[in-house]
Each structure stands twice: as structure tokens, then as C-alpha cells.
Amino acid sequence: MNTKLVIANWKMNPQTLREAKRIAGGIKTVASKNRKTQVIVCPSFLHLITLSSVGHKPISYGAQNVFCEKDGSHTGETSLSMLKDAGVSHIILGHSERRAKGETSEDVQKKISLVLKEKLIPILCIGEAERDMEGEYLSVIKNEIKDALKDVSQANVKKIVIAYEPVWAIGKTGEEAITGRDLHEMTLYIRKVLSDLYNQRTAFSVPVLYGGSVTGNNAKDIFSEGEVQGFLVGRASLDAKEFGKIISIVNKA
Ligand code: PEP
Q: How far is ligand 1, taken at its centre, from the CA of residue 72, in Å?
């Protein structure tokens, strides 16, 4: 697990291809100077095709979702083969914004198996909506991991990336992100769950990322204390300069 990862989730942004190309070009420049860190950009499907054909190496491209069936009549959906053909290497799955729109654990489970079968890398998003004093949020995390990995073998789980994204920290100000200390506790817990499901060695071979209001200002503390292998970044990834700061921090650490 030597690779550090910084992933951009552009969500439904930016509004024009021209702007998408401009941001990707800026990220490519920073990524070229920070080669110890793998940088993956997940644009909208519409922009993905052009951006990945332009290339922007060493950036890799990822998708924000995929449909859970391999093929068939599914109006408005995008298949894994289409994404593979477009040059995608990673797929974000189970993002809280998709779960909030009705994506179930069964959907996530199905999609993970599909993605692994096609030898792409699933980025499994997990995260509690809120933190309660009784520690119920830990069960939320445990169940999300157990449900998503139900059909995943020990050999395959090592090919997955887990992104811990507490819903309460997404889309907030940098001050509202998790503290490094709380994140460290959570990464230990995630590894314990993985260890119980597989074994300790396997648990430590799965990269765990953090996502939720990461900025150029808070990335250093969160990364150094949190025991994560990188970040999944939303808003700050739309600003190549700000995102570049995050990439450099991770790369230097
Ligand atoms: C996200 O939604 O995946 C995310 C991390 O967003 P933000 O960085 O804007 O909180």
C-alpha cells in the first residue's frame, strides 16, 4: 500500500467543457511535479470522454457512478463497458449523495462485484450521517462495509479503495472537517472491521482515504494524524491551485 491517492470528485461541475479542460490542465501541471501521488479526476460523464481522450497524463480518470447491470435496455444509464472504453480506471461507488437519492446497499454490492470483474478499481464511500454519544455511528460504518463487501473475496478486497466520508463533514467549511485525531480513531476502526471480515494483513493492504471539506489549509493536519493514504476531494478539487496544494501536501508527507 505504497501509493498515495488524491481523488477529485467534481460532482455536477463545472458547467462547461472549456472550464473542465482548464481545471484538468492545471491539475495535470501539479500532478506532474508530485509523482509519488496518484491523482484521479472524476468529472461528469459528458466531460469524461473528451478529457480522457486529451489525456492529461499523469492524471487518471474515474467515474462518479456506474449502472449495476452489464448491458440491456436501461434508459439514461451508463454501463461499465462504456466507462472502460472511455479510459476510466476508478469508479466512485456508494457516495452519500447517491445513497440519499435511493441507492441501496444491494446496488453498491452489485456494482462492486461488476467493477472488480472488469478489473477496474472501486472507490467505496462509507460514512455516518451524524455522530451520537452512544457510538451508534460505528455500527453504521460496520454495516456499510459488511454489506458492500458481502461478495468480495480476500484477494479482491485488496483491489478496493475505501473513502471514509462522514456526511456531516461534506460540503462544509474547512474548519468543520474531521480532526486528525477523530479520523485516526475511525481509520483504526475501519481496519478492525476489515480485519474481522478478512485478516489483519489484508485489512492493512486496503487504502483508506478521507473526504469531507478537505482544503489546502486543513489537509496537512488531517493527513499527518489521520493515518489515511490520501483524500477524496469535492469542492476544493474544482480549483486547480487549491487542489494542487492538497496534492503537494500528500506527496510531501
Ligand atoms: C465529496 O462529496 O465527496 C466531498 C468530499 O465533498 P467536499 O470536499 O466538498 O466536502
A: 32
Q: Is 203 in the pocket of ligand 1 (CB under 6 A)?
A: no
Q: Is the pLDDT of residue 174 over 90?
A: no
Q: What is the DSSP letter of 126?
A: E
Closest ligand 1 atom, CA of 177? 10
Average of pLDDT values for 14-34? 97
Q: Which of 47, 95, 103, 128 is catalytic?
A: 95
pTM beyond 0.70: yes
CA neighbor of 60 nearest in space, from 94, 93, 37, 33 = 37
Q: Residue 92 pLDDT > 90, yes or no?
A: yes
The residue-averaged pLDDT of 191-197 equals: 98
Structural domains present in the chain: 5-252 (3.20.20.70)
- Distance, CA of 79 to CA of 196 (rounded, Å): 33
